[in-house]
Amino acid sequence: MKIEDLPVSELMNRNVLTVLPSTTLKDLISLMRKTHQHIFPVLADDATLLGVVNYNDILNIFRPFSRSVSEIVKRMPFVDSIDDEDLNLELSPEMGMLILVDDIINKNYISVKETSTIKEARRLMRIHKLQMLPVVSDKKFIGVISTLDILVYVFKEHDIITK
Protein backbone atom coordinates (compact mmCIF):
# COMPACT_ATOMS: atom_id res chain seq x y z
CA MET A 1 0.00 0.00 0.00
CA LYS A 2 1.29 3.45 -0.88
CA ILE A 3 1.96 5.82 2.01
CA GLU A 4 -0.65 8.29 0.68
CA ASP A 5 -3.36 5.68 1.15
CA LEU A 6 -2.42 4.67 4.69
CA PRO A 7 -4.78 5.79 7.45
CA VAL A 8 -3.44 8.42 9.84
CA SER A 9 -3.79 5.85 12.66
CA GLU A 10 -0.84 3.88 11.18
CA LEU A 11 1.67 6.73 11.59
CA MET A 12 0.25 8.98 14.30
CA ASN A 13 1.81 9.53 17.70
CA ARG A 14 -0.51 8.59 20.57
CA ASN A 15 1.95 9.50 23.32
CA VAL A 16 1.49 13.28 23.34
CA LEU A 17 1.78 15.77 26.16
CA THR A 18 -1.35 17.87 26.55
CA VAL A 19 -2.47 20.73 28.79
CA LEU A 20 -5.70 21.73 30.48
CA PRO A 21 -7.45 25.10 30.12
CA SER A 22 -6.53 25.74 33.77
CA THR A 23 -2.77 25.40 33.12
CA THR A 24 -1.02 28.65 34.06
CA LEU A 25 1.20 30.58 31.67
CA LYS A 26 4.14 29.89 33.99
CA ASP A 27 3.52 26.13 33.87
CA LEU A 28 2.97 26.19 30.11
CA ILE A 29 6.27 27.97 29.48
CA SER A 30 8.07 25.61 31.88
CA LEU A 31 6.63 22.63 30.03
CA MET A 32 7.68 24.11 26.66
CA ARG A 33 11.22 24.66 27.91
CA LYS A 34 11.50 21.21 29.50
CA THR A 35 10.11 19.24 26.57
CA HIS A 36 11.10 21.46 23.63
CA GLN A 37 7.54 21.00 22.42
CA HIS A 38 6.11 24.28 21.15
CA ILE A 39 2.50 23.32 20.52
CA PHE A 40 0.14 21.57 22.91
CA PRO A 41 -3.35 20.18 22.44
CA VAL A 42 -5.72 21.58 25.07
CA LEU A 43 -8.12 19.00 26.47
CA ALA A 44 -11.20 19.06 28.65
CA ASP A 45 -11.37 16.62 31.55
CA ASP A 46 -13.17 14.10 29.32
CA ALA A 47 -10.36 14.23 26.67
CA THR A 48 -12.42 16.38 24.29
CA LEU A 49 -10.07 18.51 22.17
CA LEU A 50 -10.82 22.17 22.95
CA GLY A 51 -8.06 23.69 20.86
CA VAL A 52 -4.31 24.12 20.69
CA VAL A 53 -1.85 26.54 22.24
CA ASN A 54 1.62 27.47 21.03
CA TYR A 55 4.31 30.08 21.62
CA ASN A 56 2.73 32.50 19.11
CA ASP A 57 -0.48 32.45 21.15
CA ILE A 58 1.59 33.51 24.16
CA LEU A 59 3.23 36.38 22.26
CA ASN A 60 -0.09 37.54 20.81
CA ILE A 61 -1.54 38.36 24.21
CA PHE A 62 1.19 40.95 24.75
CA ARG A 63 1.11 42.59 21.32
CA PRO A 64 -0.78 45.88 21.09
CA PHE A 65 -2.09 44.88 17.65
CA SER A 66 -1.78 42.02 15.22
CA ARG A 67 1.35 41.25 13.25
CA SER A 68 -0.40 42.13 9.98
CA VAL A 69 -1.25 45.60 11.29
CA SER A 70 2.34 45.93 12.49
CA GLU A 71 3.62 45.13 8.96
CA ILE A 72 1.33 47.79 7.46
CA VAL A 73 2.52 50.39 9.98
CA LYS A 74 6.17 49.59 9.15
CA ARG A 75 5.53 50.39 5.47
CA MET A 76 4.04 53.82 6.14
CA PRO A 77 6.44 56.50 4.84
CA PHE A 78 5.97 58.82 7.81
CA VAL A 79 6.85 56.15 10.41
CA ASP A 80 10.57 56.27 11.13
CA SER A 81 10.78 52.94 12.94
CA ILE A 82 8.79 50.58 15.05
CA ASP A 83 10.20 48.60 17.96
CA ASP A 84 10.42 44.85 17.73
CA GLU A 85 7.27 43.98 19.66
CA ASP A 86 8.56 40.55 20.65
CA LEU A 87 11.43 42.10 22.61
CA ASN A 88 9.66 45.08 24.16
CA LEU A 89 6.78 43.46 26.00
CA GLU A 90 5.10 44.99 29.03
CA LEU A 91 5.29 42.20 31.60
CA SER A 92 4.76 41.69 35.31
CA PRO A 93 5.59 38.63 37.44
CA GLU A 94 1.90 38.11 38.32
CA MET A 95 1.10 37.32 34.69
CA GLY A 96 2.67 33.89 35.05
CA MET A 97 -0.04 32.81 37.48
CA LEU A 98 -2.96 34.99 36.32
CA ILE A 99 -2.93 34.09 32.62
CA LEU A 100 -4.30 30.65 31.90
CA VAL A 101 -4.20 28.51 28.77
CA ASP A 102 -7.96 29.17 28.59
CA ASP A 103 -7.12 32.86 27.97
CA ILE A 104 -4.89 32.17 24.98
CA ILE A 105 -6.24 28.93 23.49
CA ASN A 106 -6.65 28.80 19.71
CA LYS A 107 -10.06 27.24 19.10
CA ASN A 108 -9.77 27.57 15.30
CA TYR A 109 -7.68 24.44 14.89
CA ILE A 110 -7.59 21.97 12.02
CA SER A 111 -7.79 18.28 12.92
CA VAL A 112 -8.11 14.93 11.17
CA LYS A 113 -9.81 11.67 12.00
CA GLU A 114 -7.75 8.54 12.56
CA THR A 115 -9.40 7.07 9.46
CA SER A 116 -8.27 9.98 7.25
CA THR A 117 -5.52 9.13 4.79
CA ILE A 118 -1.98 10.44 5.01
CA LYS A 119 -2.65 12.20 1.69
CA GLU A 120 -5.56 14.11 3.26
CA ALA A 121 -3.47 15.01 6.33
CA ARG A 122 -0.54 16.26 4.19
CA ARG A 123 -2.92 18.33 2.04
CA LEU A 124 -4.32 20.03 5.14
CA MET A 125 -0.82 20.62 6.51
CA ARG A 126 0.29 22.26 3.25
CA ILE A 127 -2.85 24.39 2.81
CA HIS A 128 -2.74 25.68 6.39
CA LYS A 129 1.07 25.73 6.71
CA LEU A 130 1.08 23.37 9.69
CA GLN A 131 3.64 20.81 10.80
CA MET A 132 1.24 18.90 13.07
CA LEU A 133 -2.46 18.05 13.19
CA PRO A 134 -4.42 16.77 16.18
CA VAL A 135 -6.14 13.45 15.53
CA VAL A 136 -9.64 13.06 16.93
CA SER A 137 -12.31 10.40 17.16
CA ASP A 138 -15.79 11.67 18.05
CA LYS A 139 -14.23 14.98 19.22
CA LYS A 140 -11.96 13.07 21.63
CA PHE A 141 -8.23 13.65 21.27
CA ILE A 142 -6.30 10.49 20.49
CA GLY A 143 -2.94 11.77 19.20
CA VAL A 144 -1.17 13.83 16.55
CA ILE A 145 0.17 13.30 13.07
CA SER A 146 3.18 15.40 12.13
CA THR A 147 5.40 15.95 9.15
CA LEU A 148 8.15 14.25 11.15
CA ASP A 149 5.99 11.13 11.68
CA ILE A 150 5.52 10.90 7.91
CA LEU A 151 9.23 11.49 7.18
CA VAL A 152 10.28 8.84 9.68
CA TYR A 153 7.98 6.33 7.99
CA VAL A 154 9.41 7.17 4.54
CA PHE A 155 13.00 6.98 5.83
CA LYS A 156 12.31 3.58 7.40
CA GLU A 157 10.76 2.29 4.19
CA HIS A 158 13.90 3.33 2.26
CA ASP A 159 16.27 1.90 4.91
CA ILE A 160 17.69 5.34 5.72
CA ILE A 161 16.92 4.67 9.38
CA THR A 162 16.25 1.36 11.11
CA LYS A 163 12.72 0.06 11.47
Give structural attributes.
CBS-domain, 34% helix, alpha+beta, two-stranded antiparallel ribbon, 163 residues
Structural commentary:
With 163 residues, the protein is of the alpha+beta class. The chain has a single domain, classed as CBS-domain (Roll), CATH 3.10.580.10. The protein is built from seven helices and five strands; from the N terminus they run H-E-E-H-H-H-H-E-H-E-E-H. The protein is elongated.
Structural class: alpha+beta
- Report the major sheet: 3 strands, mixed
Order of helices and strands: HEEHHHHEHEEH
**Number of domain units:** 1
Cα-based radius of gyration, to the nearest Å: 19 Å
What is the CATH T-level topology? CBS-domain
Strand order of the largest sheet: 3-4-5
In short:
By secondary structure, the chain is α+β, with helices and mostly antiparallel strands. The chain is built from seven helices and five strands.
